[in-house]
């Protein structure tokens, strides 16, 4: 029997979850963002089991979903947090994460931000050599921070160019081919005790991920052979794809960890603190969105309450960013009826705000619902204020309860955002 988190949530489970949302009194929202917190806990457990090592720190990439209550669940379940900005560092602190379990990874850290990170004692991955020199100028032996250097393993570009960050020519990390400079940096900076690699998000395969890690592990082997100070932190980033359609492969943490154990067994032997930074693969299938159908126009075109504001990548690059859609009636149950080619339009005032074109769906009427699957990562975190609509109500499924993770924006919130 596969574990429940090793299979994609089935449509029936999502329909049942929406029934709970409605039963809890949230059925009349224009749109709701639903997060299954129990599933997130189970996925973190499965990740920890798959990557079991004498020393491991599993962080969740905040940029995948910065809802504070989601972060709190992750922290309470034993995860650390990965921050892509100083603001995300503060979200992590607010979520109760201890500083030594926060990994600060921004590619554009300012000097004051670095000084603050060192004062707080965060784990910091320097993105480039000039940043390392900035850290050297600010670093004192009193800082509890552990410092790593991000390496670009210079693979071939991954399947989706937009999110590929570990190929030759990528602007992230120090290219592996600059080995002399890397060697020099490690020789000069005794505080530098970590290596970091992250090659991208979605569009990657397990062999590519393993290849990136193996190349940087080989660099570590060469560095430690000549250097008295150990390199005892190895951060293999995130980048495991999520499964957005039934016919796509499901790349589990267990499969990834098994491939890593075969290719880089020493990674798991306790010489290093093994750090991971998964976002999408942990969170995407912990969330779904339901929108009411507000208008149906000839076509038919069903106008929903979320579009390019919540699904930036999907709307602008639909060939790369897939979501499945379920048509539900007013009562929240799946609609029957012969499918018709339906366009699902967002609510924003431009012709391109379309979530799906000519999608075969049972005929939709005003007041029906459309459920969008796998929305737990890189949706609300990428919210666009264009047209100034309210961020919908975010809910959590937590044990038997339906809890509010974030209330729907009020009009005052939106006015305040624009300086009101
Ligand atoms: C975005 C990002 C992650 C998370 O990537 P996922 O594909 O969501 O797992 C991890 N580390 C770094 C440095 C990132 O930029």
TrEMBL record:
Name recorded for this polypeptide: Diaminopimelate decarboxylase
Matches recorded under InterPro entries: Ala_racemase/Decarboxylase_C, De-COase2_C, De-COase2_CS, De-COase2_N, Orn/DAP/Arg_de-COase, Orn_de-COase, PLP-binding_barrel
Cofactor(s) in the UniProt record: pyridoxal 5'-phosphate
Active site: 349 (proton donor)
Pfam families: Orn_Arg_deC_N, Orn_DAP_Arg_deC
PANTHER family: DIAMINOPIMELATE DECARBOXYLASE (PTHR43727), GROUP IV DECARBOXYLASE (PTHR43727:SF3)
Lineage summary: Bacteria, Pseudomonadati, Myxococcota, Polyangia, Nannocystales
GO biological process: lysine biosynthetic process via diaminopimelate; polyamine biosynthetic process
N6-(pyridoxal phosphate)lysine, modified sites: 63
GO molecular function (one): diaminopimelate decarboxylase activity
Residues of the Orn/DAP/Arg decarboxylase 2 N-terminal domain: 39-283
Family indicated by similarity: Belongs to the Orn/Lys/Arg decarboxylase class-II family.
Orn/DAP/Arg decarboxylase 2 C-terminal domain sequence ranges: 285-376
UniProt entry keywords in alphabetical sequence: Pyridoxal phosphate
């Amino acid at each position: 029997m596969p574990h429940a988190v090793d299979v994609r949530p089935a449509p029936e489970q999502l329909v049942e979850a929406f029934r709970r949302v409605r039963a809890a009194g949230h059925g009349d929202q224009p749109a709701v963002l639903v997060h299954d917190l129990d599933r997130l806990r189970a996925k973190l457990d499965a990740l920890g089991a798959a990557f079991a090592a004498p020393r491991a720190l599993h962080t969740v990439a905040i940029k995948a979903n910065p809802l504070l209550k989601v972060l709190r669940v992750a922290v309470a379940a034993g995860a650390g947090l990965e921050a892509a900005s100083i603001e995300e560092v503060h979200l992590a602190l607010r979520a109760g994460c201890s500083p030594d379990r926060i990994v600060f990874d921004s590619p554009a850290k300012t000097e004051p931000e670095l000084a603050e990170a060192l004062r707080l004692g965060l784990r910091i991955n320097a993105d480039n050599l000039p940043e390392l020199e900035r850290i050297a100028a600010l670093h004192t032996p009193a800082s509890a921070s552990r410092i790593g250097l991000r390496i670009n393993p210079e693979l071939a570009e991954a399947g989706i160019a937009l999110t590929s960050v570990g190929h030759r020519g990528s602007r992230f990390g120090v290219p592996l081919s600059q080995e002399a400079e890397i060697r020099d940096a490690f020789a000069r900076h005794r505080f530098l005790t970590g290596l970091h690699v992250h090659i991208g998000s979605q569009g990657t395969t397990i062999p590519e991920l393993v290849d990136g890690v193996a190349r940087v592990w080989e660099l570590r082997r060469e560095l430690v052979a000549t250097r008295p100070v150990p390199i005892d932190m190895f951060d293999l980033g995130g980048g495991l794809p999520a499964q957005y359609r039934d016919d796509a492969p499901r790349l589990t943490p267990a499969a990834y960890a098994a491939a890593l154990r075969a290719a880089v067994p020493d990674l798991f032997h306790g010489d290093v603190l093994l750090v991971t930074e998964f976002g999408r693969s942990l969170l995407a299938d912990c969330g779904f969105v339901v929108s009411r159908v507000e208008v149906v126009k000839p076509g038919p075109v069903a106008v929903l309450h979320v579009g390019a504001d919540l699904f930036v990548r999907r709307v602008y690059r639909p060939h790369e960013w897939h979501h499945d859609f379920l048509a539900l009636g007013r009562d929240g149950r799946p609609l029957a009826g012969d499918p018709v080619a339906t366009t699902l339009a967002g609510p924003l005032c431009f012709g391109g705000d379309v979530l799906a074109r000519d999608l075969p769906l049972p005929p939709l009427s005003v007041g029906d619902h459309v459920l969008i699957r796998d929305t737990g990562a890189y949706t609300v975190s990428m919210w666009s204020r264009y047209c100034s609509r309210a961020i919908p109500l975010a809910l959590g499924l937590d044990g038997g309860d339906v809890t509010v993770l974030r209330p729907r924006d009020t009009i005052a919130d939106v006015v305040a955002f624009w300086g009101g």
